[in-house]
């Protein structure tokens, strides 16, 4: 597949996932949505985009997403690993995108995740995991990539194999449960860095489709390595133009415009509520030491994200079947 086409796909999908209107509610206290509701949202996403997803394809995509989340939550050895799994996903997005604004968005989201979950206790995160697994209990689908790697059985149950990262939370629950993540040394929980280019140590949340999955890097990856990786992507594109394999005035061939029909209502109304003493909800949360979504992050994310969609619908020439892309990865 064309290099520029692939890069456009990755940038557009990442942009959709980092939509502030989608992210903001995730950092606000609210009941967990049910699976039927989640399925409805995903179907609406598919219908509002130019992707070709019939009912069968939608079923496969939903099953893949559901079972991968279920596997990662099942295999997690402790609350800190749950956060590290999220950071691995964010690292994956950062590695895939080439757009500078996309990279800024990814970094902001990582800061939001770290700040929010660091203020939660070990028990709060673990109970959230348990709630998610209860919601996924009835979903038992065999996934080809998990079967090939020996991580799933024919009856759809999982093989949880020993990994380098093992938090053993249940053995230390008595002393850690009521402590906040930020108040406990990482080394107490088998390490794993929350830094932007830190070593997460856990494999969970990394791209399982890569042939190098399971091979831990010995060299520490830093910001300079990340910049070199981005430079390689840019050089490949320039080389393609110089060799005459691409038009110099590149026309984006398609877009994956997920969640484009989200209502424009202000999702921050709840954050502006005040109590009888005139204090905002966020002010009270700060005084109580409760996790909150920093308004500065939201403002920054809104500003950077807006740069994604200048002239968004210009130059669209074809649609793309997302399931075909997944098949090519396998």
Automatic annotation (TrEMBL):
InterPro entries: OSCP1 (IPR019332). Residues 265-295 are annotated as: Disordered. It comes from the Eukaryota. Pfam families: Oscp1 (PF10188). One of its GO terms (cellular component) is cytoplasm. This is Protein OSCP1. It comes from Ooceraea biroi. The lineage of its organism: Eukaryota, Metazoa, Ecdysozoa, Arthropoda, Hexapoda.
